[in-house]
Amino acid sequence: MARLTDTVAVVTGGGRGIGREIALHQAREGAKIAVLARTATEIEETVALIEGEGGRAIAVTTDVTEYSAVESAFARIVSELGPVDTLVNNHGSFQAFGPVWECDPLVWWRDVEINLRGTFHTSRAASPTMLARGKGRIVNLVGGGTGNSFPNGSGYAASKAAVMRLTECLNDTTIAQNVRAFAVDPGLVRTAMTEMQLSSEAGKTYLPGIQKLFDDGVNVEPSRAARLIADIASGRYDALAGRLLRGIDDRDQLEREMDSLVATDGRALRFTAVEQHKL
């Protein structure tokens, strides 16, 4: 039997790129999939691919920045597929490039709204049923700037660092009821988002390092994050709840290192106990 048989997974931003790969891998493991995004044609294509492989999926057109729309989406998902076992927050936006004094304030804030507010909305909608059932996993995708500075990418970096902290707070609040939250960094993947960074004048001006990384051969396959997230959904990495896992990780080695990572408080966005004592 596939590891995720009789489970329901929600994948936001599932119409293309990393999100589509995540949805396909979850479906291949037996999960029923709700694919969420704003563009109906793209998520319908993902659903068609899943159904073509014998899986079950529905397309739910949703703007994650609108909470009423998210609530309606989850009500439909529960009605058609059943209660949600795994929520994967893959939606993301990175359109504000440049120093803060040159970024359009509305574009900068829109990145934050989609990345952070959208993740709050979906997590808020999914959590009550998970808590009532005493099980569930929430996976939040992060990225560049989560744990370090990202010059000329402040909106994206600040929002993804905030998503990491939200993940930790959520996990620490719900783990006693067997609901866990994880952060996943898929690595540098060639997606529509990165293509815009490579082709736009602002991207060429302010983010030349992206092109250099691709030129140097850094190009992580989206299937790596998708396989990792399927492992998370199966419970393989439950000991690492509240922490950051990476698409580039060797998954077997990661499993072997779990106890050490927990003991040393690794993969977390927080001060060590000694540093906290000094504050």
TrEMBL record:
Gene3D superfamilies hit by this protein: NAD(P)-binding Rossmann-like Domain (3.40.50.720)
Pfam families: adh_short
CDD domains linked: SDR_c
The keyword Oxidoreductase belongs to this UniProt entry's keyword annotation: yes
Keywords linked to the UniProt accession: Oxidoreductase, Plasmid
Taxonomy, superkingdom: Bacteria
Cited PANTHER family: 5-KETO-D-GLUCONATE 5-REDUCTASE, ALCOHOL DEHYDROGENASE, PUTATIVE (AFU_ORTHOLOGUE AFUA_3G03445)-RELATED
Protein name according to UniProt: Short-chain dehydrogenase/reductase SDR
